[in-house]
Request: fold
Amino acid sequence: MIAMLNFAVLAIATMFAAAAAAALSWIFLRVTFVLMRPATARRVAPRTELARGTAQLARAFAGNR
Reply:
């Protein structure tokens, strides 16, 4: 009888430890994504001088045709 009780306590403790490990892993994953968000949120605006220059160049050549 005591052996069955010890086995039951061991099984319950193992399930509790597995649940705690899964919860901590999930929390750490969420914290990691929150900490990474500012690094990926800052986008460098593309330079538009080339696009404006290309449009001006196209207008200049289109007038001559």
About this structure: The chain is about 85% helix and 0% strand.
